[in-house]
Write a structure and sequence with these properties.
Number of helices of chain A: 11
Largest sheet of chain B: 6 strands, mixed
Radius of gyration of chain A: 28 Å
Shape of chain A: globular
Largest sheet of chain A: 5 strands, mixed
Number of strands of chain A: 19
Number of helices of chain B: 19
Oligomer: heterodimer
Radius of gyration of chain B: 22 Å
Mean pLDDT of chain A: 88
Order of helices and strands of chain A: EEHEEEHHEHEEHEEEEHEEHEHEEHHEEH
Strand order of the largest sheet of chain B: 1-7-6-12-9-10
Low-confidence stretches of chain B: none
Low-confidence stretches of chain A: 444-460
Mean pLDDT of chain B: 90
Structural class of chain A: alpha/beta
Distance between the termini of chain B: 35 Å
Chain lengths: 462, 442
Amino acid sequence: MLEIEIDGKKAQVPDGSTVMDAAQQVGVYIPHFCYHKKLSIAANCRMCLVQVEKAPKPLPACATPVTNGMKVFTHSELAVKAQKGVMEFLLINHPLDCPICDQGGECQLQDMSVGYGPMKSRYTEEKRVVFHKDVGPLVGMEEMSRCIHCTRCVRFGQEIAGIMELGMASRNMHSEIQTFLGRTVDSELSGNMIDLCPVGALTSKPFRYTARAWELQRRKSVSPHDSVGANLVVQVKHDAVVRVLPRENEAVNECWISDKERFAYPALNSDERLTKPMVKQGGEWREVDWNVALDYVAHGLKDISREQGGDALAALAAPNSTVEELFLLGKVMKGLGSGNVDFRPRQTDFGTDFKRAGTPWLGLKLAEIKDLDAALVVGSFLRKDHPLIAQRLRQAAKKYTKVSLLSVGGEDNLIRLHARLTVAPSALARAWRRWSRLPPNSKESPRRPAWNPSVPVKPPRP
Amino acid sequence: MAMLGAINPVLMAGLDGDNTWRLKDYVARGGYQQLKRILESKMSQEDVISEVKKSVLRGRGGAGFPTGLKWSFMPRSFPGDKYVVCNTDEGEPGTFKDRDIMRYNPHSVIEGMAIAAYAMGANRGYNYVHGEVWEIYKRFEEALDEARAAGFMGQNILGSGFNFELFAHHGYGAYICGEETALLESIEGKKGQPRFKPPFPASFGLYGKPTTINNTETFASIPFILKMGGEEFLNLGKPNNGGTKLFSVSGHVNRPGNYEIPLGTPFATLLEMCGGMRGGRKIKAVIPGGSSAPVVPGDVMMQSTMDYDSIAKAGSMLGSGAVIVMDETVCMVKALERLSFFYYEESCGQCTPCREGTAWMYKVVHRIENGLGKPEDLDLLDSVLGNIMGRTICALGDAAALPVQSFLKHFRSEFEYHIENKTCLVPKDVQWAGSGFHKIPA
């Protein structure tokens, strides 16, 4: 443990902490743009410059390691002068078009300029103009002049999404964030770059010009599309969902959500959606009131139950319904005298139902994935099926977890794999059986030499 | 011919023939004898480093950091790869000494790097050559082939069991790649952008391994230091400023070129060797250490000697030893405009103060030069450069700010005249007369 004093507040921090970590621990806010707790340290925005005792120059808090007995001043004359100087530099080429910017009202640069920016610009030269880029239907790079080159989006691609789709090309003031040779941004996690962008350079295309941040009501929710149940903030304007954002939960989704979660909401407002109940009478659909429709259904179900017995009825629920919804469905079916309820509409073989105790699940908490020695993925296209689990495995594989893949396709999960075996879907079970018979740390291969699973996955918890 | 003039030359001695860069010539001049001696006598690593320390050889790339001390930072017991990297990315305006070393005496660099690798327990080396001087890259590759064929490089050098592989790597001309960590990034195949320090390259360098980076001239001096002994090399110069150094003299002198002189030689002597001022005009200002060093007025410079300490006393830096001489026909505003443009162009764009500040400074100086200056512009420049200095990831921010600061300090009246009268203090016909390009009709 190291001792540090920040603005007179003393704290003990673990070895290897940075001044920024320590400041968060003691509750001192240091302004920053490029620093993000989930990304690597870049130290390029220079907004977090602070005064450190015995250092001749102000040092960036995000990249300066704590030394024992260090004294840091975040609001001293030297520190504030440095921070204000950086703020002025960031603003000289920024278009200051906040009134028409989608980020207005929730913009880090806007907030920080209130605290550190000058009232009037001393910069009278022409500003930099950066052309917009079309990178696909989700992420908008329409006003790249707003970019402050913090490279959060670039580091997100390299580190979290596993594929570097954005990079900073060119030198000096003319450096630009762009894709490689005009390609699109296709990552299944690309929407998170919009959240990460501290200014309005990367914006959400579907949300573009729909609402201002302060007009929105926030509702907490849980993801209906995502296998992990990512926590969401659903934003509503005039009783219509206009935006979906991640809600931070370290145990589930950290601060990310996948694109299919973020960009699914336009379907809620679609014209093609049925919003009123209809009843078919005489071969024709007729719009009716909810009361009428519910009565109609209730009578119909009760009639069947009375005439043919409860077993004539069965209910199939969507597997990603909430627990409450499933409970209510079960209650309705019981009331009708039927026990036929299932949530597995895609499953055809239920032969193992009576042999297995309990519900199948991952066997460990999502947050424990990073501590695994080894993981074996069977038959899943992780990136598309479970983007957030893929993200966690990707981080784990960078450290010491050996991730092996038994797949049925040639897809690339952007995870550093320990071993990989691709078989036909019909051979999946056989390949798994042969693999599971190999002793741990076996060098033997069921099919080819590259196949070298060393340690099996952790056994399911009792 | 390698040199226009020299006093007690060491590095460039005996380089008058045509093929002085060939291995045969170098060996005839006594080359590779020191590597051989060290390997055969199994000289200890400490002894080699202490010999370099004794010579007080200071880094020739610009910062002037003592080389022996730098070498001793290397964790010699570190298991696994360690690297020795030579910085021939000579991009500083006014500097052209490394190019001549590589052109006329490349084997001295190879031998110096091999000795350095031996002293630091490294087995791999890279020489990063500036991308705009392609012919010296090609020549260095040829020299490497010669050394490899003769057994001075590769596996089991001269039967001693010491392995050293050296590779040449050329950049594409970015000035920032001369910054040591940007250079490492570039060798790794990434965009040449400086890394944040700490960690320093001695602990986390090329591919994350301990790495030592020295200038070409520094490495080229190593064989000679070991040949003559550290003490004697030191005595060539003056205390704390050991040895001889190459100075690239450019600007308004009669014979611009490279000159090797002992450190501590008076500037007046150097100027005399260059044939004096062109056209016998009065000296106005000198940039003694490459474009990023502060400018010094001519009369102050005439009183000082060419070594790290006295140039620092004169308010500048010896830097890489690029002496840019300006005579009285120079408009200092125009000179600064060109310098600022260079830093504006070459800023890598990574960190905010340098990316935005260098552009701002250039634009303001450009405006003043073109008669659109405002009285408050000089204070604005002072404030902007103050916001850049000491706030950036690497030294390019300081390098861009120092010339502006010194020009404003020493030649403020010219800037004020420019703003007030919208024209140069030095009349245009005088400027033309001095340029050498515009001939005034008789």
